[in-house]
């Protein structure tokens, strides 16, 4: 009876964690002219969420429940281990992406405040994006690069608009 109750608890956790994972994979809705700093903020938020989830999963309360279920040879543990692995991968992806995007962050400021003749900033920015694409195990997808380039382009357009309105 205790095992059944604990299995019910783990199944509720499993459902909640699956929901978090599904939501994290959904397409983001962003305003049309959002700049590249939003990309870093997104991944920082995601890293924080997944790290909190990992901390909770590693808590002594959860470990005790899992060890009781392991002793009882519960079948719910197989699903739990798969979810634990998925969360760990998602947390590692977010952490890695934050680390790489921080290398770009210092280049976003000059891009935002430059005159429309921002050519001196572009080569360094593109070299850094290229480095991220070539070395990041997670961020080097077409989806992530497209999102980043779109935001960089938005920032360049916003800078030009600001220049024109102030000039």
UniProtKB/TrEMBL annotation:
One record GO biological process: microtubule-based movement
Family matches, as InterPro entries: DHC (IPR026983), Dynein_heavy_tail (IPR013594)
Dynein heavy chain tail domain span: 4-165
Top-level taxon in the UniProt lineage: Eukaryota
A GO cellular component entry from the record: axonemal dynein complex
Protein name: DYH5 protein
GO molecular function per UniProt: dynein intermediate chain binding; dynein light intermediate chain binding
């Amino acid at each position: 009876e205790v095992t059944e109750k604990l299995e019910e608890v783990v199944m509720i956790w499993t459902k909640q964690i699956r929901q978090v994972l599904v939501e994290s994979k959904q397409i983001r809705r962003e305003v049309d002219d959002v700049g590249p700093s939003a990309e870093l903020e997104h991944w920082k938020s995601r890293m924080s969420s997944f790290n909190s989830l990992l901390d909770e999963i590693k808590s002594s309360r959860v470990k005790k429940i899992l060890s009781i279920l392991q002793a009882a040879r519960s079948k719910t543990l197989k699903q739990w281990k798969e979810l634990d692995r998925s969360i760990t991968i998602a947390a590692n992806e977010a952490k890695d992406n934050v680390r790489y995007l921080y290398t770009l962050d210092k280049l976003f400021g000059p891009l935002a405040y430059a005159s429309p003749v921002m050519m001196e900033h572009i080569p360094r920015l593109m070299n850094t994006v290229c480095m991220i694409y070539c070395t990041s195990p997670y961020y080097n997808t077409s989806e992530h690069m497209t999102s980043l380039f779109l935001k960089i382009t938005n920032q360049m357009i916003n800078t030009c608009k600001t220049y024109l309105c102030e000039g």
